[in-house]
Amino acid sequence: MKLTTYGLLLLSLAAFVLCEKNAGQEIIQLTDGNFDSIVGTSDEWLVEFYAPWCGACKQFGPRYEAVARTLPGDLAVKLAKVDVDSSPGLASKFFVTRLPTLFHIKDHQVRQVDTKLNVQDIVAFLKDKQWENIPVWNGYFSPFSIVGTGVGYIGIFMKKLSSFPPWAVYTGLAVTILLIIVSFGVAASQGMGSEEDEDASRSDGAKTPSSPRTRKSRKVD
Asked: Signal sequence: where (predicted)?
């Protein structure tokens, strides 16, 4: 009797462990620093962009966590989130203009997902591959394109620029504009000078017509 009881307990424990292993997903924090190394070319991701101060994000957060708990652990999709305040490069790469924003990524192809979907709809969206019915972003403006990479660097630069006092930013912009104007002025003056030198060399090198010689008249005696 005892052996039977212990056997049932062991079976129950094993079943519980297997269920825990096959249920639920971890939400990974993506940043400007780890995005390129973590998001592989053939990976499938669901990524939420949020901000700690965003009220709508606070409402969507528990729903997103419920999706992570509901998804089967053996499903190939990975869940992640991005703090736009601490990762301005990613926010710029994905052209995030409202929060929260949800993206599906598969084979570096990006699709935007409706954040109004409930937990069951998002799970079905991933399990049934409903994302195949959503148009893919234009490749030129993809976060993985040259344009997206450049926009990401601009976002990081602007974020760093915003950390400086306003007077320093305005002074830097004024000096930059002044240097550009001076550079154009110097280049223009050098161009005019070279044209004048060229004209002068042309005028010096040109042959002047020889003046006709006056012939001496001979006296006829």
From this structure: 1-19
Amino acid 184 reads F
Query: Strand, coil or helix: what is 206?
Result: coil
- 88 closest CA partner among 145, 150, 146, 157: 157
Please indicate, yes or no, if residue 205 is contained in any of the structural domains.
no
Q: List Cβ neighbours of 66 (8 Å cut-off, separation of 6 or more).
A: 119
172 located within any domain: no
> How many other CB atoms are found less than 10 A from the CB of residue 64?
20
Give the model's confidence band at 7: pLDDT under 50 very low, under 70 low, under 90 confident, else very high. very low
DSSP code, position 132: G
C-alpha–C-alpha distance, residues 154 and 174, integer Å: 19
Predicted model pTM: 0.65
The whole-number pLDDT of residue 149 equals: 86
Asked, for residue 87, whether it belongs to a domain, the answer is yes
Q: Which long-range contacts (CB under 8 A, 24 or more apart) does 144-148 make?
A: 144/108, 144/110, 148/93, 148/94
Would you tell me the crossing angle of helices 55-70 and 119-127 to the nearest 10 degrees? 50
Element (H, E) at 148: helix 146-162
What is the tally of structural domains in the chain? 1
Host domain of residue 155: 23-162
